[in-house]
Amino acid sequence: MILSYLAAAGIAFASPQASGGALRAELAFEPYTDMSEIYNFYGGQMGRGMPDRSTRYSKQYQAPPMASKPVFYKISIGTRDYVGVKGKSKADLKADDLMWIDWNSDKQFSDNELAKPLPNTSKVRRYSSQYAMFMPTTFEGGIPKAAFVFYSSSNLYVTSAGYMTGVLPVGKGLKVGLVDTDGNGSYGDVQNTSDPEAYEIGDAIYIDWNGNGKFDEQNYTRQSKISDIESLPFSKVMQLSDKAFYTIESDPDGTWLEAKPYDGEWATVTVRGAKAEDLALTGPDGMLLLNNLAGTAKVPAINVSINGLSYVVTDPKGKRWHASVSFYERSTRKPLKLKAGQDNLLRCGAPFKAAIGISSWNKAPQNVAGVQNLSVEIIDAGGNSLGSFYDDKNQNPKPPTIDIKDARGKVVKSLKLSYG
């Protein structure tokens, strides 16, 4: 079970540290071969482009003669802007099949700046729009800069063109991959969600958990198991298939990945009141997601916040319910910090209670006084507000109804609530 918030989370299991030296994988580039591969993985978004139908670019650039009905684009990747143009090789084609990117900013579109379309331009699973993907033939250091994905004809997203991949010597061999998700040209950037002012998207890491020799398609649901997710944000501390925690490092060029046995501080976490499923720990070194906690678990203490917990409770009829909560300091309402060298007790579970909140409407309609909003929170036994609540079939309980009564107890208004 994975917290819905944590589809892109680091991964860890409660287990002792391994012994021995560092593990190393030499990596080589593997390009994406069709549209679905990018959307199956945590490919991220390096940049985006918008069509520019003004005369600004048409005055500065000459569209290639072979491009019928050309459209210019301003394309932002990282901190740089590029100019691109797409068009049709034949005027009667339904879709564009040509695209150039002025990589060297010389205001010309040369033959080696032509991007070629890849197969599978039909509908991609889980997405309703038509997609087309172009891969550049221009390479930098032997690696394509990016892939250009169009949807609904004109909207453009820029993604990684592929990934670096190799095998770590764990067990019979653990296939791994690295993706320059943030498009800054460096591999191994950590996703930092601990400080909103210093948020970093970071890079992605692929792990072949089931050992079938490939990175499997992802179908995220709230019931997803950790072993289902083979595409994750890059984190400095992770656990590999041998159940040991490691410090993860990579060459900025993406040519190698190294895993050293974790040798930092430790803490313990005890979940009381329910059966824990996932526990998320976030910090500047990335995110750890601990799975199937039982009793007291030993975890790396890497200056992280106890971000979220999902757990299971059973109602009086024997039906199982899954809940997720976040933990905050009672006085400051800041995320609860993991204390190194100590046991960190997390209280949760049933019984639940409803808390009704009332707030004024900032922009009430004219001539309407006393307009207020009502909201309902579900609070668990530990005083935590539930972020989600659903059964084994991924269904929420029926939304409650609020009855407003007068002084005599007569219902004067019934309000039907909805999720959202």
Description:
This protein is an all-beta fold and 420 residues long. 3% of the residues lie in helices and 43% in strands. The strands form eight sheets. The protein has an eight-stranded antiparallel beta barrel with strand order 4-5-6-7-8-9-12-13. The chain has a six-stranded mixed sheet with strand order 1-23-22-25-26-30, with no helix packed on it. The longest helix has 6 residues, at 35-40.
- Beta-strand proportion: 35-45%
Q: What is the overall silhouette? A: globular
How many runs of DSSP E, i.e. beta strands?
32
| Rg result | 26 Å
Cα separation of the termini: 22 Å
Structural class: mainly beta
- What level of helicity do the residues show? under 10%
Q: How can the largest sheet be summarized?
A: 8 strands, antiparallel, barrel
Please outline what is shown here.
By secondary structure, this protein is mostly beta strands.
Topology:
Blueprint: E1 12-13, E2 23-26, E3 28-31, H1 35-40, E4 47-52, H2 56-60, E5 68-77, E6 80-88, E7 98-101, E8 114-117, E9 131-136, E10 139-140, E11 143-144, E12 147-151, E13 155-159, E14 162-168, E15 174-179, E16 204-207, E17 231-233, E18 237-239, E19 245-250, E20 256-261, E21 266-272, E22 275-283, E23 286-291, E24 296-300, E25 305-314, E26 320-325, E27 343-347, E28 353-360, E29 372-379, E30 386-391, E31 401-405, E32 411-416
Parallel strand pairs: 1-23, 21-27
Antiparallel strand pairs: 2-20, 3-14, 4-5, 4-13, 5-6, 6-7, 7-8, 8-9, 9-12, 10-11, 12-13, 14-15, 15-16, 16-17, 18-19, 19-20, 21-24, 22-23, 22-25, 25-26, 26-30, 28-29, 31-32
